[in-house]
Batch of 3 targets.
Target 1
Amino acid sequence: MATKPFNVGRDCRVVLIYNGSRIKLPTVTGFQAQQQTHRLTSSPLNDMPAFYDTPNGWSGTFNFQRDNSGADDLFAAIESGFWDAGTMILGSIYQYLDECDGTTTTYEFMGATIALNNAGNFQSENIVNQSVSFMARIRNKIS
C-alpha cells in the first residue's frame, strides 16, 4: 500500500448523529475543530509561575452544500422540541481521517450541541452552502 507524504482536506469525512439518527449531509466541504481548555495559573512566592491547561471540551464548525433538507429538518425538530416540551438533546459528530499510511482514524465528538450559523444564501446559478458550529464535551478516539 502506497503512503502519502501528508494529509489533504479530502482525507476527512464527517457524520452527524443527532437524537439517534444519522443526518444526511452528503457534501461536507469543510471541517474545523479545536480543543477548549481552562488555564490554571499558580504564582508561588518562592518559585517561578506555573501554568496548567485542563480540558474543557471542543468547539468547531463544518460547512456543507445543501443537497437535501437534512440540516433544515434537524434544526426545525430541535426548535420544536424545545418550544413544545423544553427538551434539549445532544448529539455526536464522527470524524473519519484517512491517514498517510493508509489506515483510518475515527474520532467521536460526544455530547455535541449544534447551531445552524448559516442556513444558506439562495441565488440564481450558485451553490447553496450551509454552516454549523458545535460545542462538544469530549473527543474520543474510536479507532
Target 2
Amino acid sequence: MIAEDEWLLASDLAKFFADMGVIILGPVATVEQAEQHARMAEAAILDIDLKGRHVFPIADELMRRNVPFVFFSGYDEIAIPEHLRFASSLSKSSSQAAVSDALFPPEPQPGSGTPAVAQPASTADDIVALLPKLRLTARLLLDDAGASDRLVERTLERALEDIDKRSAGSSIADWLNAIMREIAHSRGASLLH
C-alpha cells in the first residue's frame, strides 16, 4: 500500500513497485483511504502527514499484523511515537531502491564486511518474522492472492517435513525462498485451483 498525498511522488513509487510485479493498493492520499486498505496490505509506504493528519493509527494496525512498513516524510520535525521508532523512516528525497530496501532489508552477504546483528530469536520466531516477505514473494511468483497464500502454506508444510535436511549455516530466508520457488515451478498451476 502506498499512502502518499503528493500525486507525482506517489505515482513514481507505484510505477517502481508495479514494474517489480507488486500489486499496488492505492496510492491513497488520506488517512481514511489508508484505513480501507490497511487490512489487505502486505507491505506499506506511509507518508507521516497525509493532508494534515498523522498515519500513526495505520502504522499501529500494520504493526499488529506484522506487516512491514516504512515512514516516508518530507518533514524532519514530526515526532514518531516511541512504540513506532523501530520502523525505518526515510526522507522523500530517498531513492526508490532505498524505500524497497527499508521495507525488505537485504540479507548481509558473507565476507561483505557488514556485520550481522545477533538475534536471540528461535527458528520459529524467525519464520514468523519472515511471513510478510514470503507472502510478497509468493504474490510476485503467482498473480493470484489465493494461490499465493496456498504457496506460502505449501512452503511451510515442506519446510516442516524437510527441517532435518536444512544445512546448518544456511539462512532461513534463503532456504524458505528456495523451497517456495521449487514448489511454484513444479506445482504453480495446480495452486490456482
Target 3
Amino acid sequence: MDETDEKIIKHLLVDARQSARQLALKLGLSTVTVLSRIKKLEKAKIIQRYSVIVDHEKIGYSLTAIIEIIAKNDKVVGVEDEISKFENVCGVYDITGSTDTIIIAKFKERNELSKFVKGLATIPNVENTITHVVLNTTKEDFRLS
C-alpha cells in the first residue's frame, strides 16, 4: 500500500458512492488505474465492504451503551465471538486492563438494553458486566480521514 492507495481510501471514506472516474479526476490518475487499485485493496481485504453512515437516533436507536465484560479464565475469545453475533452490537474490543472486553451497542428503548444486559449473564463464561449509558455523543465517526 502506497500514498496513492491511502489517498483513494481517504476519498472513499468521505464518499464511497463516487465513481472511479470522479475519483480519478480528483487524484489526477486514469480511471483504469483507480479501478485496478481499488480491486487490489478489496482483494487484500483492506477495503472490506462499502457502507453508509446513519444517524442512529433518527432511526430510533436513542440509547448507546458501553458495556465492560469480564470473562472466566481463558474464555475471552469465545465470549467475544458470541457477543459479536448480536444485531445491535456495533463494536467488540478485546482490551487490556481489569476488563477483558468492551462492547458498544445501540438500543431503541431501556427495556431492550435491560434485556440485553441480562442476556449477557447467560452467555457461558461471562463472569461480570459493567454497563455505562451514554448521555451525550460529541463525536461518533470511525473514519480515519
